[in-house]
Every structure is written in C-alpha cells, then in structure tokens.
Amino acid sequence: MSYKVGQRVEVPVKECQGVIAYVGFPSFASGKWIGVILDEPKGKNNGTVKGKMYFNCAENYGMFARQAQLILLDEAGNRTEPVSPSSAGSNATTPDDSGPARARSRLNSSRLSLTGSRTLLSAPSTESLSGSLHERRDGGESLIPAPTSTKRASFIEKSPSTSSPPGKKPKAQDDHNNTGFVETLKPQFVPGQAMAGSAVVAANLMEEKLSHMQLAQENDNLKSQVHDLTEKVETLRVKRMQDKERMKDFEKTKLQIEQLIEFKTKVMESQASLQRDLQRARQEAREAHAAREQFQEEMADLAETVEMATLDKEMAEEKAETLQIELEQLKDKLEEQTLDLEILRTEMSERAAGGGSATGASSYEIKQLEQQNSRLRETLVRMRDLSAHEKHEFQKLQKDMDQKKSEIMELGRTKEKLSARVEEMEHQIADLQEQVDAALGAEEMVEMLGEKKMALEEKVAELQEAVSDLEALQDMSDQLAESSKELELELREELDLALGAARDAQRHRDAALETLADRELTIVKFRELTHQMQEQYLQLQQRVQSTESTKTNVRGADQQLAEILDFQKTFAETRAQTKAVDLELRRLDADEARNHVCHLLSFMPPAFLARGGDHDAILMLLLIPRMTQKTEILISQVREKYRSIEKIDRASVIRGHSVAQYSFRSRLCSHMYSLQTALSCFESVLNSCSPEMLLKAGNAYPEMAAQEKSLDSLIELAKRDQLDENLPMEAIEKCCAYFATMFSVLFGESTAVNQARLIVNGTRTLGSACDAISTDATAIKALIQGEGGDIGLLCQHVETTCEVIQQHLKSARRRVPRDHAGPAFSVGANLGLDKDCNEQFSTSYQHAVKIVKTLQYLLKSALQAITENGDLDTGLPADKLKEMAATSSEKVYDTEDLGPVATIKASLTVIQQLAANLAQKMAECENELAISGQTQNQQQSLEGEQLTPILIRANAARKESEETKILSRKLETRDSDIREARLALREKQEELSEMTLRKELAEKRFITQQHEHEMNVEQLKRKLEEAQNQLKRKEKEFEETMDHLQTDIDSLETEKGQLKEKLKSIGKKTLSTVGADSIAGSTSLTSAMDNKYYVQEINALREALSNEHLQKKKIMCAVLRQKLDSLEPLSSPTSLKALDSTIQELRKKTTDLVKDVQKTLVYPTVPDLRRKLPETSYHYLLERRRNIMQLKERADELAAQVRREAIKRTPGGRAEANFAVYPNREMAAAMRERKLLAAEIKIPYNGPERSFSVNVGTQELRKIHTLLYY
C-alpha cells in the first residue's frame, strides 16, 4: 500500500503518532524511506541528515523509518489494514519473513534428502550428523550476538525449527565434544561390501546378466547418493565453522559490552558526583542570592526612611521660613495699625477738644476712600484679567470650530467620493446580476459537463484502484529487494569475517610449522646427542668394568659433564656460525646487487641520472617504504624496552622512572605513527599518480633523504641501548612537519589518498598521543597536595576525555577492512571521508603535541619544585601548580594561550570531535565499505596488477628506445624515398612550367575581364549619382513651391483679416448714411466711387473665401477618409435570407405564444362541479397552473432569444464568450435604458420667472412646440 505526504501514521517503536512529510530514496541509506514528523519529541533529527534537508520540523520531532515499521491511520485515528491486490495476496510475504522462508525451504529439502538416505549410513555417521545438526541448533538459539538486525535474528530463530529431528547423542560424542576436539564427519559407507556382494551374486549366477546389470545400476545410484551426502556433510561442517566464528565474535562483543558497561558505570558515578556538586553549588548560590535580596530590601527600606526624613526636614524648614515671613509681615501690619490707631485717637481727641466744627473731610474718611479706591482698582484689574481670559478662550474655541469645519468639509468630500464609488459598485452589481441571469441559461451545458465529470470521476476511481494495486506491488517488490540486499550484505560480511579468520589461521599454521621445523631440528640434534651419550655410557661401563678405582669414576663423571657443556657451547657456536654465514651471504648479495645497479647505471643516459629525473623518482619510491620500516623497528624496540605500567602513584612518579619512560614511549610512538601517516599518503599517491607528478616529487628527494638522518640517529641510539626519556624530540617533530607540509605542497589537498591506511595510522597516532596525555595528567594529579582545584579537575577531565577518544578511535579502526588498509589498495580505498581528512588529522596531531608539551613542562617543573623543597613525600598545592601550568601553556601556545584550563580543553575538544566524527562515519559506512572492498577485490582480480607510474615511465622509456630504432630504420627508407622523389620532382617541375604558362595566359584574360567589369561599374555609379542629384533637385523645387504657397496663404489670410475689418467699417458707414440722407446727397458722387471699389473687393474676398472653404472641405474629407480607413470593417451580414428566416421564426414563435396566452387566459376550462370526485377539479387547477408556468418559461426563453439576436445584430455589442452570447457593458446599459422625465411644464404658473436649459433634438423640440401651442 502506498504512503503519501500528509497522511497520519503510528510508529509502534516510538509509541506515538505523526504525519508523513517525506517519501523517497534518500542519500544517507539505500532503499525507500519515509520521513515522519512526530507529535512528541521522541525523534532523532529535525528533517536534516548529513547537511541535506528532506523536510523541516522542530528538533527531535523528525525521524526516518521503513514502510514496514509504520501503521497507517484513517481520519478518525483508527488503524487501517493494508490493502493488497488479490493476485499477490496469497504469495506476498514481508521482508522479515522472506529470508527465513528461503532458509526453511533449503533446510526442509536437506532434511528430506538426509532422511531418504539415512539407511545408507552406518550408526556412527548418523549419530555424528545428528549431533552436528543439534549443535548448530543450540548455537543458533543461544549464542547469536545481540547487536544484529531483526531480519537476521528472525532467520536464526526460525531456521532450527525446520532442521532434522534431534536424536540422543551418544556418550562418546559428548565426551569428545567436552574435550574440545573436532570430529571430522566421514561417511562410513563402504562400497566394497556391495561390490563384494555383487561379485558373490555374479559368481553364483553367471547366467543372469539382467540381474547383474540391475545390481550395477543400483550400485551407481548408491554411489551418487553417497556423493551427495558427503557434499551435504561438508556444507554442514562449513556452517559449523561459521558458527564457531560467530561465537568468537559474540565473545568479542560481550567483552566490549562489559567494557562499555564498566565505562558507563564510571561515567554515571562521575556524573552523579558532578550532579551532587552542582546541586550543592546551586544551593549555595541560591542561599547567597536570598541573602543578597534580603540585604537589598533592608537597604531599600533604610533608603526610603532616610529620604522620607530628609523630605520631612526640608518641608519643616520651608514651613518655618514661611511662618517666619508671615510673622514679620504681621508685625509690620501691627505697627501700621497701632500708628493709625494712635493718629485716630489724637484726631478724635483734638476734634473733641476743638468743638467739632469740621467742615472738611477728616483724615479717617480720606483713609476709607483710599481703601475703597484700592479695592475698586483691584476689582478692575481682576475684571481685565477675566476679560482677557475669556477672549483667549473665545479665540481657542474659534480655532477649534474652524478645524471642525475643515474636518466636516473633508468628510463631505470623502462622502461624495464614497457615494460615487457606491453608485459604481451598484452598476457593477447590476452588470454582474445580468451576467448571472444570462449564465443561468447554460444549465443544459452544466448538466452535460456534470455527466462527463461523473464519468471521468468513475474512470479516475478505477485508475486509482489500479494505481493502488500497482503501488502495493511496487512496495512489495521494494521490500523484497531491500531484504535481498540486506541478506546479501550480511552474507558478504560473514564471508569477509570467514576469510579474515582463514587468513589468521593460515598465518598461525605457518608459524606453527616453522616452530615445529625448528623443534624437529632440535629433536634430531638431541637424538644425535643422546646416541653419542649412550655410546659414551657404554664405553664408560666397559671402563668401569675394567677398572675399579673411584678416581677413574669421578674423572669419568667430570668428563661427561664437561662434554655436555662442550656440546652446548658447540651448539651455540654452530648457530652463531650459521648466522654469520647467512650474514656473509646476505652481504655478498647486497654487494652484488649494488655492483649490478652501478653497471646498469653506467648504461643509462645522462638525462636518466639528472636532478629530478627517473633515477631520483626510483630513489624516492625506495625511500618511503625504507623509512616506514625504520619507524616500525623503532616502535617495536621502544615497546619491548618500556612496558606499560599498571599503577601511577606519587612514589612511582618522584622516585622511579617507569612513568616517564612509558610517557616517552607513547610520545615516540605518536611521532612515529604520524610520520607513518605522512609516508603512507606519499606511498599511495606515488603508486597512483601521473608520471609527471612522480618526477616532480623526485625533485625533492635530496631534502627528504636528509630528513632520514633523524630516524638513523634514533636507530643508532637503539643499537647502543640509549633510547630513554631524556632524548629530545625536536628533530623527529620537524621531520613529521616537513613530510606533512611537503605532501600538501607537492600534491595539494584535493589529491585522493588511501583513506583506510590514513585512518589506521591516524588513529594510532592520536591513540599514542592520548596515552601520553593521560599518563602525564595522572602523574600531575598524583603530585597534587590536598584538594585538586582547577588543575585536579583538568587532569580528571583529560583522563575521561582521553578514554572517550580511545574508544572512538578503536571503534573506527576496528571497522576499517583489513584488505583496504593493505598496500595493494592505493587510492581506490575511499571510505567516504572529507577531502581535507589528512589536514584534520595533522591539525589534531599538532593539538595533541601541544598538550603533551604543556603537560611535560608542567610535570618537569613540579618535580623540580618538589626536589628543591627536599620533602619527597609531600606534593605541591593546587595554586602553585596552576601558576606553573599558566607558564607552561604560555610557553607552548604563545599567542593562542587562553589560560591552561581553557586552552587544553579546547585542544582536547578538537581531537574528541575528530574522533567522534570518524567513528560515526565509519559506523554509517560499514556495510558500504564491505561491499566496496569486495567489488574492488573482484576488480583487482579481474584487472590484474595496476600499472604504477614508475612502470608507465619505464614503458615510456622502453617505447622511446624502440621508437629510436624504428626511426633509424625509417630514416634509411626515407633516404631511398628521397632519391626517388627527386626524380619525380624533376618531372613535376617540367609539368609545373607548362602549368605556369597556362596560368599566365588565364591571368591576362582575367585582368582584361576585370577591367571591363570595373568600367561597367563606374558607368552605373555615374548614372546612380545623376539620378540622386535629379531627385534632390526635384525635392528642393517641391520645397520651394511649398514655401511659396505657404507665403501666399499667409498673405491671403492677412488680406482676409483686413477686408473683414474694412467690411465692418463699411457696414457702420452705410448705417450712418441711411440715417442722414440729406448729408449723403451732397457726397453721392464720392460714395458711388467707393461702393464700386468695395464691391469688387467683396467679390474677390468671396471668391477667396469659397476657395478656402473648398480646400478646407478637401482636407476634412481626406482626414475623415483616413479615419474611416483606420476603423475596423463592419461585420456585414453574410446571409440575409438566414437572418430573415430567424426573424420570421421569432415572429412565428411570438404569435404562437400570444395565441396560447389568449387561449389560456380568455378561454379557461371550467371544471365539472357535478362530479362527485373532488380530485378531478383539483386536477384541472393543477393542469392550469402547469400551463401558466410553461407559458412563462416560453416567454422568458423567447425574450432571451430575441435579446441574443439583438446582441448578434448590433455590431460591437457582443462580449467575448465561449459557451453563450453575452452583451458588453454598453449594450447592457442601452438595453436597460428607460425614458427619463427631462422637464415638466405647469400652466398656469404664478411663481417668479426662471429659465432652464434643456438639451433636446429637433424631434423633441417639435413635440414640445405642438404640446404647448396645439
């Protein structure tokens, strides 16, 4: 069944539902995959895998799954059963069961064949066969590795059920299996017995030839059956060996799982401790934060109280100042009032003393008046302020009113615009309504289209069913193909493992044979020695018998011991002598090979021995493997000399040298593996590059040979047993850096290398570096006194990170195929890594070297400080170690230093990221690697040895030498050809002289014809120039005549204007002469003369005016003719008879409709009320209503036909449409137009007189005139 994007599915593995967002064949894996967006965050990605986005969703909401892992849901959320076609329903199987089904069929067939031939085998053979099958079943059920795919597990679990029925094992077989020996299964059938029986029968019954032939045929059949059974037993033995290999793999994976579980427990413990520390730190931070908030609240309260107190103080001070001012003012007023009071009292006393004739106003009254005046003045000022304030408010209101008026005006304009828009929309709605009304007439077409649509939908449904069936078949075929691919991959993987195990067994067998040969030699020698000893013993016995003294016995025993010692000495001497002879022979061979090379070089040309030539290229090819072998020798020597350490404590670090020696071993191995990485890149590229690139690399041979001296110095030290931890590493580091840079310089980063060897050597490099780093970190941690601090945490982090990196590197190295890593695979062993993988390895190696140097400097400085202190049992505090670490990291990292902790962690992160990416890529591409390795093996077996660039260069040199010989032969033949060619050349020269004469004659003829042609061309050019000159002259004359005519027209127009003015003045003069006849009588003679002159001018002007009118009409006619020509031609009716027939038909329909309407309305059928049944009257009423409805429909249809015919007959009134006839907007408006009331005249009218202008035509004017006057 087919899955589509947008469908709801259920994922049983994740126990959730989701929506399909992608269906197809992605690039990260083979086969068909389905991308699902889950409803819960239980996925693995966000729709992007390896940088390619297949769909988009939130993080951890997307996942990819196979089709068999999903269950389709319907709209209600219920599971739907997969629908498969009936043809494939009985035979279809899932991919998980296809492999076991085939396995069951094979096992059933083998079981039947075994049971059919069981009687032919003896008892031990059947028991061993059943025992092997029983062991296979037990191994398949219990000892299959856990991390296998589901298809393989189902295959293994179901296959034993179909095997042969288990029988009881004999005791001897159990004992044999318990001892660990492997019993070879051989059929115990002896054909000689049957042959003997047949011979006896033949001897007894010689006459019965027919029975003899039958017995011979049966014998042949039995032999063929025995042969088949032996083949089956062999296949069972092979399968048993495969099961044993699987058991080994299971043990390996079991050990790995135990290691992983231990590592997981360690990680969980460290995580738990870190979690506890984190909780404790968070609790302390929370408490500190709460204390800080409480302190801030208290300080805020204190600040508020202080601010309130300061505000109260300021307010109190201000209040005191205001009260002080008021007090002073009141004091002043009090003094004034007291003075006034005293003055009044004195005045009153004086008035009382004086007698009271005070005609004038007293000072008291004056004072009162002054106070009233002051009050009035204050009120006046207040009134003035109030009026100004009211005036200001009035102006403000006036401005608001103007603003509101402007807003009202704008709203009025917008209202007008909107009303106009509403009218337009109403017109559009009316037009659309008409179009809808017209479209309602297309119901028949809609019905027809609906029927077609239904038919097409039925076809589509049938096609969808067929497509679903085909998709189901396609899905089943895809699943079967995927299952077959997976089975093929598994079988290939098992085959590779079996081949690897066979190679290991072959190597072990060869080693065992060598050891057996050595031991046999020693046994032979010891036998000879024992034989000699026995002879000596017999001699000694004879001597003992002849002599009885004890001295002679003692002397014989001493002599025997001395002889034994002499034998051992002679045996050692013989071995040393054989070695010396072998060395002499090898030295002789080397000298002979050297002389051979010198003699061969003497035959070579100087170009071969030049700088950058073929000789340097050959030396380069010899240098690379020689340096690789030297690095291997150094690695083996340093590993044998310095063994790994089990425990690192303070005593071993301070008092012993084992830790420093193991760190030195790891560092030296790291440098050696790094050099091997660069050399392997050189070797793979030099064996697959072009010959030009090989010669380019040969230019750098002297410099590379100089770098070999650093390895030679290390080998000399190893010979003298002086490789120790005090050896400086700068020379070998420079050598590694030189080869890495030279590779990028010579070949560039885009050059493909053997990625398998690169991964193996690179992982070994980083693994050795991680060993050195973890060793130094553990030693530093052992030297810390008390709490570790930052340095202790850093050392712990370094140890755990190094362990993780080692695991990643081991997993990546383990997944590299062994065949790919060999020297046979040069560049073809591509494992899907990036192009800059070599650069990434070198960067990680540089970071590892920096970390190692930093920790070495720190360790040395710490040990030096401890020795200076004198107390070797106490360590250093963490602060002092941190200072030392800062100086060490600054010395190593220089400008990149960010502090010891951050810098070392950053470098470790780079190494860890590379190791994790490498392990992930190797895990993803494991199956592809197996397939590619197998295909490459097949290609190499088919193609044979690949041509290396040195062989290509040799073939080229060989071809060059052969070509020189061929060229010499060709030169000899060429000389003879040249002689013959000279003779032929003389003949050709004679022929050429004749041909030159003929050529000269032809050239002369050609020159004469060319001259005549040029003359003709010149004549034609002159005629063309004359014609062009005439044309220009005529154009100029035409322009002059046009200018002259234009000037005449301009002068005539000016004369016309002057004459018009004169005519006006003459008209005025004639009017004045009519009013004064008496005056005109005196001047009649002069006026008559003037009139004649004016009459002539008027006639001339009339003629000019008539000419002007004619010219104007001509121009207007030309313009109108041009406009008419530019217009589109009118659609002339093609057939008037057909149009008239349609009109007549419409008239006939109209008359018929009118008759039917009159018949229905004027002559109604009256129901017979005398009948008893009321249904008849009701039937008449229904019939009448139906007739009326039919008449209405006929009328509407006739009106629509008339409208369509009118639209067709009106030119330009039809809108473009495919299925019906529609009017355009102008036509629809004209058809919808009704008569409008233009004006209404009321007689009599008593109101004021007003005038209105009405645009009417002549007919309307006549109608108005007749209505008013008649």
TrEMBL record:
Residues 81-96 have a biased composition (Polar residues). SUPFAM superfamilies: Cap-Gly domain. Keywords: Coiled coil, Cytoplasm, Cytoskeleton, Dynein, Microtubule. It is found in: Cytoplasm, Cytoskeleton. Pfam families: CAP_GLY, Dynactin. Residues 205-239, 264-493, 978-1069, 1181-1208 form a coiled coil. Residues 79-178 are annotated as: Disordered. It comes from the Eukaryota. GO terms for biological process: establishment of mitotic spindle orientation; nuclear migration. The keyword Cytoplasm applies. Residues 106-123 have a biased composition (Low complexity). One of its GO terms (cellular component) is spindle pole. InterPro entries: CAP-Gly_dom_sf, CAP-Gly_domain, Dynactin. Residues 24-66 form the CAP-Gly domain. Belongs to the dynactin 150 kDa subunit family. This is Dynactin subunit 1. It comes from Dinoponera quadriceps. The lineage of its organism: Eukaryota, Metazoa, Ecdysozoa, Arthropoda, Hexapoda. The gene is LOC106750282.
